[in-house]
Specification:
heterotetramer; A: 585 residues; alpha/beta; Pyruvate-ferredoxin Oxidoreductase, domain 3; Rossmann fold; 3 domains; eight-stranded mixed sheet; 19 helices; C: 279 residues; 8 helices; 8 strands; 27% helix; globular; binds thiamine diphosphate; binds iron/sulfur cluster; binds magnesium ion
Amino acid sequence: MNDIAFSSSSNSKGAPQSLSIALLGSGGSGVMTAGGQLLDAAGQAGWYGMMTRSSGPQIRGGEAAALLRLSPQPVETHKGRFDILLAIDWLNADRFVGEIILDQKSIVIGDSGGTVPEAISKMGGRYVELPLTQLAKSINGGRPNMVALGALAQLIGLPLRALETVLSKSLAKKGQDAIDASIAGINAGAEQASAIPDIPDFAVTPTENQERWSITGNEAAGLGAIRGGIRFVAAYPITPGTEILEWLAPNLKKVGGVLVQAEDELASINQLIGGSFGGTPSLTATSGPGLALMTESIGLAVASETPVVVVDVMRGGPSTGIPTKSEQSDLNIALYGLHGDAPHIVVAPMSIGDCLFTTQWATHLAETLQTAAIVLSDQSLGQTRALIDKPADIAFVSGGRTLTSKSENFQRYVVNDCGVSPMSIPGTPGCQYTADGLEHTPTGTPSSRAEDHIQQLNKRKRKLDQFDYGDHWAKILGEGETAVLTWGSSTGPVREAIAMLEAEGKHVRLISMRLLLPIQPERLAAALQGVEKILVVEQCHGAQFYHYLRAHYDLPGTLRSMAVPGPLMIRPDDVYSELTAWENA
Amino acid sequence: MNDIAFSSSSNSKGAPQSLSIALLGSGGSGVMTAGGQLLDAAGQAGWYGMMTRSSGPQIRGGEAAALLRLSPQPVETHKGRFDILLAIDWLNADRFVGEIILDQKSIVIGDSGGTVPEAISKMGGRYVELPLTQLAKSINGGRPNMVALGALAQLIGLPLRALETVLSKSLAKKGQDAIDASIAGINAGAEQASAIPDIPDFAVTPTENQERWSITGNEAAGLGAIRGGIRFVAAYPITPGTEILEWLAPNLKKVGGVLVQAEDELASINQLIGGSFGGTPSLTATSGPGLALMTESIGLAVASETPVVVVDVMRGGPSTGIPTKSEQSDLNIALYGLHGDAPHIVVAPMSIGDCLFTTQWATHLAETLQTAAIVLSDQSLGQTRALIDKPADIAFVSGGRTLTSKSENFQRYVVNDCGVSPMSIPGTPGCQYTADGLEHTPTGTPSSRAEDHIQQLNKRKRKLDQFDYGDHWAKILGEGETAVLTWGSSTGPVREAIAMLEAEGKHVRLISMRLLLPIQPERLAAALQGVEKILVVEQCHGAQFYHYLRAHYDLPGTLRSMAVPGPLMIRPDDVYSELTAWENA
Amino acid sequence: MDTVTQCPSLKPKDYKSGTKPVWCPGCGDYSVLLAITKAMAEMSLSPENVALVSGIGCSSRLPAYLNVYGFHAVHGRALPVATGLKVSRPDLTVLAAGGDGDGFSIGGNHFMHACRRNVDMTYIVMDNQVYGMTKGQASPTTDPDWDKSKLTPGGTKINPYYPLVIALASGANFIARASSTDPNGAAKVLVDAMRHPGFSFVHMLSPCVTFRPEQKDWKKMVRSAPVEPTTDPAIAAKRLMTDDNFFLGTLYKGDRPAYQPELKATVDNISELDKGFIL
Amino acid sequence: MDTVTQCPSLKPKDYKSGTKPVWCPGCGDYSVLLAITKAMAEMSLSPENVALVSGIGCSSRLPAYLNVYGFHAVHGRALPVATGLKVSRPDLTVLAAGGDGDGFSIGGNHFMHACRRNVDMTYIVMDNQVYGMTKGQASPTTDPDWDKSKLTPGGTKINPYYPLVIALASGANFIARASSTDPNGAAKVLVDAMRHPGFSFVHMLSPCVTFRPEQKDWKKMVRSAPVEPTTDPAIAAKRLMTDDNFFLGTLYKGDRPAYQPELKATVDNISELDKGFIL
Ligand SMILES: Cc1ncc(C[n+]2csc(CCOP(=O)(O)OP(=O)(O)O)c2C)c(N)n1
Ligand SMILES: Cc1ncc(C[n+]2csc(CCOP(=O)(O)OP(=O)(O)O)c2C)c(N)n1
Ligand code: SF4
Ligand code: SF4
Ligand SMILES: [Mg+2]
Ligand SMILES: [Mg+2]
């Protein structure tokens, strides 16, 4: 094995060895299916990897691209550059320019007789034709996407056996004929590809075979919710959050919970409040427009101290924006979008796998602190499928709902040191109370008195401020006088950019914040000890994270903002360039 | 005339000479009516003044207080201390402790035979009894509130003639008998009060008689809206914003516009968008909970570049909070509450009279810049009645809706230098387009392409950033190396506190920001030239304004936050003490 | 459905919390409160097994005056809160309550969908044909020519909303009208509603003496519906077409099964769910 | 009402914008687009005097494909946008359009209140009994046992929503059903609806070939209603009780006057308004 693929990008040293493959085709060509099978097979063979789906504006049947990255190590981000682009056809393929960068060392594969669009060919790369359609036709029930799959496996050194296993499993319902046709297709493709002359050896050596999962961030969030104790979900579908709900509906059922499809987001957030009031940890998933509709009632959860968890899988904004693409531009509304002074929790997963932990943690925090927690995931985390190590089993010791039997002189909103008051649940005799979004006395009676207001305001803030969030608040890696401060899905590319610099002997600190509210000034100050330059990296236009940091933290040294809106993801190269440019400035 | 009243408060020097009067009574006692008549009569007599209504939790019929301040100069805030407290009865009067501060020099007047609640008597003040009920009974149709009114007029040196004029006008519909009974009542009260021994002379010398208006902030906002060109209003009632709508409904009708009562706030904001799309400047008024429901669609106004104006008359938060009391805690949601990157306009009136100008200006800005403008008024501005000088007549040269006839190659969202694209209105031939909240090309076709997104994001930001807001962005007064940065209704008390310091020879600069979004960094930097200490004053718990300033401005010197939540208003004394304490620290 | 623990010894007043209502003297809502406590006593409900959820408005202040679990939610959202509560806690007796503005204006969508969804709970709308709390604006049930609100000078000019008709059209399983002017009759209707499985809607006339003083006459105008409750939607429809807003009693009882997902785990351990992800 | 300038020379295709729809091949919405252009041509409408407002969904993409003024608003809010537009610009012909999710689920409250308010406009709901845009979830009109959505395994178990019944119950002034499987018939219904004063509701069957392929059969199932449009709500109610969702045509025509405040200034100068404040 040589490492042509890895050295071909000017600055990939230090980044995980990996292979990036784009599989393109128009509607019905089956690129997504083939891409998914390639990923699963790679997992079978002991690799890590990820796959992103990209498609045109058509509701269905438009052009599509499966973007894969495979590696012997876990990968958390795509590179911009692709080693291999294989197009089953070229219809509207130029739509993906920008998402797929090629260079001289890339290999571009097309069906025989096709014409590579200029936008693609001008990026460079060696063009190879394979008779995809023709080979498919020669097989009974054969399809070009399977031929392409075989060719790719051959090129990258993926054992066909792994593909066969995956195909047999995924086509089991369609019967043996379908399986046979597909296997014939991949064999034909593999054979054809082996004849391509002078092909560099793209193969990646798999690591030892521990339990590996294939999961999307949305599925991981669903599992995290159930692990955190969520048993009631009410929701209204919205791209790109729907898959959380689709995973949860049948799985909640298995664990004795339930998902209700509500008439709209106003209903779903309020159903949660009811579920939670009844003692059942409750969650919803949505995206920006839905979150906006929920803010009034999230404020009710805060004021009435009723735990709820809202997962916002962010997409391009503002307004309906770009529903199918990722952006981190809902940070502001998550932090500041409630009317009045309404302290609450905002957390963000920093990788696909971390969607599990962060959602579970959010549930724990909401329950323990009797408040609303917003989880800021995004389309790129939620809808990308990754091969990851089996996630650790974490159990939090839950708090919060402390009252299960009659207590003398029960005061639901009693003012105490920790700020968390005892909360009874319906069915508990002698502890009846009325939860209220009006300002209230310690017993819950509405009050407009200044003392009551300040006491309850202080209490609702204090309980969040005083809680010990431990090390979960951020991920801190490396040393160095330059630090990158980032969050969420921008963490992956930043991490990889820093690894690239590390390989050049340059040390850059990574601080990715999982806990965005309440603020953690002492912790961040400690993490920034000795830092002289801070680059703030985020995927939005308004530099929302940068301004949030300025507002709430005293940051040492020079601050610089790298805020890039969607729909294109921030790439490791971009961050690498920014850091290098700053160093040389 | 002596100035006992003005010097009796320890630190009132420098503040406008004034008289503070509290009129208390239980439900049905008519204190609000009497208070309003006293204010109007004071205006008739050439005074300035203001009156605030305060009442208990009962929907109707609970205890109430009319809080007045009268002065030869315009006044923009209450003092905490009151010179005179007159209670028609003492039922639940202790509820107002906190709002009404008395000291040794105060005069406390009650009905003969009543008992002053301890919470009140212990604050000090000279207690005087007047036979209010008895005198009222002696008059056919007499009422104690009129007797009280006469007594007050006598005490403060208000010509009874002015009261008679007001009564004759306000009771005209009830007939001559009612007028006679009231006049008999005030005469009886006045006579009785003149017999009180050793009364200090509270009288205030009126200034020369130019045209004076009696207006609340909510009415002023309504008039500002109509002056700004608003002809369509859709709204859903909510305290304390409803009076804007109540004033607008009949008055819009007069100018050929219309107000529609919508089924909820989701409907009202979207009706505005429709009205505005049709070419009619459109506005709604609401309060925190309603604003929260509107944010999704305010984002649509921003993305589709459809002008709308939303007046948020803030009340205590979070959630339903304290609907009848003031707070500045909706700043965050107004600034940051839209999902995605959605640049828009946020302005705030800084006095009751300024509600007129600021609402008019907001309309002008929304129309000119084709975006959403949020006006942050609050309960204390909106529901307080003030006597002010006739406001200036201002006309803005409107821009924005530039296209009224067919244009070749019309592109609704064309990308240009100023960022404001031509906007046609339905009925214009050849300029049809589809407004869209999806990201779009310059013609309005939905697009998820990176170039289109960045171009439109830049354009929507640029048009706001580049516009020249002139001097309206802030009010800047005075010199000094200490500055107070404030906004909205906190401006009044800050201004008066600074005047008090001025009287001691201490110079403090006042910067009150009317324009909160887009930010004005150069202007603020210039205004802060030479400043070493900055006190940030606001009425909320979370120091929202302070954090906003930190986030977006580079502020010189030392920064200090004075953030006080409602329901009590910030008083000049509070700010004076804070500034003095800081100086001496 | 009265499946909860019973408490036969409680009197109506035992269901009151003792908190003094903020309502105006004479407000109809006092009698609604009374009727509810009578119904609860009649059904011998244990206060801790009952929850009443409301929105915002004068009428929505109700939960704080009861000794059961209560939720005073935000304007218009009582029904979704109650839905989430009942679906996740089918063991509780769940009621929702509020005003005509809360339920039919801002909350109108939830009302319609609650009728269709048919969760086993009772919804009481205290209709005074006005927004009391915000000082007297027209509500959906206000007559088009009521011109006392400054917001709609000359009247709304809008067709009023017929709550019972909408309830029937949306699929409500139980439809009745009661009046605060007759608390005993109202209590009976409430018992009937709470006992009926699925979503039961009680249209409760409750005068606003402050902003609609003429409603004091309602006392004289209400009368029992001269019919037995029907289970036939067509008959109910016909009946409601001629309804003049003052017939009291249970007008429709459907027999659709209540919506209640089963909450029973089928796996022993949640780690079972991991299996779907293992390669 | 066709009070606008006429443009007799335009053909249906002249009302198209030329933008290529994002719809799936075979989607019913193509024929709805066609029917709308036919109706506009039949009425000789000047494109600049027409505005079509929609929400979000596959069906709501419609305005961009027309050559009239359009507003592609947010999910569920087409009707309030259209209401604001028409009330403030009564000279325009205003249409609103969208899907069953947009109109009956998230937008259900506006639908009900638009029916009552009776502003002169036409609302077309393209009903495919599914959320197409979000890839196939149940909508209010979906059968309770349709179990193809992962969100509602085993079906919704919820009573479907009957749009025509709700429209009638809410006071809509014109109620009709059309089908995209018969664009000429649909165009006729649309003309009828647009000509009728007040709020007219057109329930437009429009199959989703992707998530509800079985709806291709609708072509065979639709048929003309064997009745004349009635002006009697009671007759309409009876008719709708037996409706099987496939009768096409105008089913109800009311005669309530449309809601349209007069927009005529009564003062010469806005400084007149100052007078109220002068002491
Ligand atoms: C989102 C929101 N909008 C508006 C309000 C203001 N508001 C409070 S109660 C109310 C109407 C109350 O009317 P109704 O439900 O009929 O109750 P009633 O007071 O008549 O009993 C309104 C509009 C609010 N609290 N929240
Ligand atoms: C506030 C909000 N919630 C959810 C969505 C996601 N969403 C987009 S379209 C749609 C439903 C579309 O269904 P329908 O109206 O029936 O239109 P169709 O696609 O079937 O034509 C949903 C839920 C959204 N855009 N905004
Ligand atoms: S305003 Fe009307 S509804 Fe409200 S408490 Fe008073 S009488 Fe009752
Ligand atoms: S998903 Fe269905 S409704 Fe949407 S475009 Fe395709 S066929 Fe039409
Ligand atoms: Mg009411
Ligand atoms: Mg649909």
